[in-house]
Queue: 2 jobs
Job 1
Amino acid sequence: MSHPAFSAATTAEEVASVFTDRIRGKNVLITGTSINGIGFEAARVLAKYANLVIITGYNSERLKLSQEAIEKDSPTANIRPLTLDLRSLTFVRKAAAEVSAYPEPLHVGVFIFNLMIPMLISSQVLIHNAYAATAEHQLTEDKLESQMAVGQIGPFLLTKLLAPKLLAAGTGSYISRVVYVSSMGHALGPGIDLNTVEKGDPEKYTMMGRHCEVKSANVLSAIELSKRSKGKINGYSLHPGAVITNIIQKEDRKEALQEFGLLGPDGPPVRRLSGRRFPNLKLPQPFTPELDVKPGAYFVDCVEASDKIAPHSSDPETATKLWTVTEGIIGEEFNFE
């Protein structure tokens, strides 16, 4: 369940080079791929070996810049841009319909969360890693609290809509995977308040407080998905390490990041970007079928660490209730038929 050569200092590029044979031929979908973000770095690294990398984002102009930069870095890369705004359930449904119509199978989905990256690659994987940190309490057009909409509710709906494609891509050798990028932040708060999943609490809202709720929801979703799918799709969550990206350019977020210890008065306290290389950005080790024996597992620094899940984020009753609440919000039941 872990690789002896990998650690907190391992980069995405280093891990990808080890598992080149397992990445080749795979079709990957990645959200949040703006240049200088971790989704872009994930796309750049995987594009060196994958059959197809679908890059997504809500801004088509920035998406085009990312495509051009990746193709410049890897001239033979097969990049396909897809406009996707996880803040809008209507947009999620539209994008999911487009992906479902692709002739290629969906092997890997990568949903990029600010500050972190997940990468669990096997034959069929959907990885949730999209996130929008907001300093102030905000509601989307669907009247959903913005952080939860992008980090949990939108990805939940997208997974539900792409489940048939993931199931169809499964083989006797591989089980489709859904990976949620959580973080150690899941344990820093009291867990998710099931009464405020939809709209949050504007009176108690803080950016990092809500961030911790979203991360708790991600861990719970991985556990519940694994249980409900009964072996058809396995869910996983992870903490991939903190990586300071273009989020620090947002003035309204600096104070919250400083309070959380991710920023000092003069910038990042430890980790800094160097060109397009992310020193602590990595792909966890489980590219291998061995991961299938531990559905719902949580990873830290490329090592399985389910014992580090906070009790409030591993409680099966809470996981079931969150799943039901989220189904109610999107207005659809999630099954695996």
Job 2
Amino acid sequence: MKKILILNGPNLNLLGRREPTIYGSLTFEEFFESLKKKYADTDLVYFQSNIEGELIDKLHEVGFNFDGVILNAGAYTHTSVAIGDAIKGIETPVVEVHISNVHSREDFRHTSYIAPNAKGVIAGFGLQSYELALESFR
């Protein structure tokens, strides 16, 4: 059974309440429960933090024994050299995901410090971005 971590960064704990026209009305916990049912043959683990160091610590923790990481680093995508370096330093492949199409948003969101070290990037498909990332590990 494959073991996949879904790792969410800052402000993603507000899904379901934060800007529902962009991010939808479903909480991530509700969505995660549906993913676990749909992908019952995969050991899915979920972790969210608003703290950059906790995201790095989690990458270090799973980065040599999980089969994949699906990472939505939120705004840290565009600011955190440290998260990019953490991904470069681990063996577990990471797929960068975004709910919104970051390339249709503010210019600063067009740069990712994660993408150069990621297996791939999926953006703009709402919560389905996570499901598409999961499919990449099958």
